[in-house]
């Protein structure tokens, strides 16, 4: 396992910043997405450094970093703040889960992970091991990681590249693929990981041109990291945009620029007063019978059977194709079910469908010898109304249904 443990400096002046030690810190869960070079890693490092210094007595920070970017932050930020950075670099899904366990066990204050290469690795691994069923297994494994991420007692940050979310839209008879949003390149196109963190930040890079004697030099200006809060479950930062100029030198306590922008989210999370966890082992197994049927599937099959029987009765007694036959069929349906079309009938609640089926069964019994099918439409409706009245009064003789 490739691991870099960056030891903190034992010398150096630390900025005297106000520190508050609440009895219990509610962990924050952040997601940062953006193109390469937009400042995802630096912003995450500054945020986690602030948490470690201000709220966790400079406890270590652990990161799974297959892209090898955090090592450059170590002398710039973490050593100056006397925070131990534990950098692990194995780019596998398995190693990431192991790193989270390690970070919790070793008393770290926070855990961060660069998800891009890890997502690609687990997809390729599952495709190789199970070419036909890899998608379902991937979804299950990824859901377990999401629960692990949200349930961890540590502050957790995920970083990922950006991707367009597209949908096929019909326009004037043509199908066009259009962009409907953006998401992180992890977790899949339809359910990307950007939905899971409590706070999602979209990073972009701006260049402010250098101006000299009124003349603008577009390619010689300062870089500015632009951060937009695209989702905040606490509502504290929804829609807000922050800009942090690129800095050539870091001084202890400079994390305050990022911290002061994001602190309203942290404070709002603390006001929730508790850690709410996902039960990763919950199951609907008790709804599944030994034969694999569930309550849902049983109800669906029962409904299908009732609908099939009703259709069979209509085909048998009112199945003509003439104009008059069609009019009678619609009228009969309206009398029994209160709707005319088969589509509307199939949307009725199951109790109304079962009532209609019982009425049709009673009607069939009245057509058995020595009686016969009514000779006129008026006779049909008169006999149907008798069957409806008897059923609604509870006087009808009910047949046993085989389903």
Based on CA atoms alone, the radius of gyration comes out at 33 Å
Oligomer: single chain
Named at the architecture level, the CATH assignment of the largest domain is 3-Layer(aba) Sandwich
Report helical residue fraction. 25-40%
Q: What is the end-to-end distance? A: 59 Å
Number of strands: 11
Side-by-side strand order of the widest sheet:
1-4-3-5-6-2-9-10-11
Task: Classify the secondary structure makeup into a structural class.
Answer: alpha/beta
Give the name of the CATH superfamily of the largest domain: P-loop containing nucleotide triphosphate hydrolases
By DSSP (H or I, 4+ residues per run), the number of helices equals: 11
The percent range for strand residues is 15-25%
Largest β sheet strand count, sense and barrel closure? 9 strands, mixed
What is the top-level CATH class of the largest domain? Answer: Alpha Beta
Q: How many domain units? A: 2
CATH topology of the largest domain: Rossmann fold
H/E series: EEHEHEHEHHEEEEEEHHHHHH
Mean pLDDT score, rounded? Answer: 81
Which word captures the global form? Answer: elongated
Uncertain segments are 6-23
Question: How do the strands and helices of this protein lay out in sequence?
Answer:
Layout: E1 3-6, E2 29-34, H1 40-55, E3 61-64, H2 73-78, E4 85-88, H3 93-105, E5 110-114, H4 116-129, H5 134-151, E6 155-160, E7 162-171, E8 174-184, E9 199-212, E10 215-232, E11 241-245, H6 256-270, H7 295-317, H8 323-337, H9 342-346, H10 350-366, H11 377-392
Parallel strand pairs: 2-6, 2-9, 3-4, 3-5, 5-6
Antiparallel strand pairs: 1-4, 7-8, 9-10, 10-11
Helix pairs in contact: 1-6, 4-5, 7-10, 8-11, 10-11
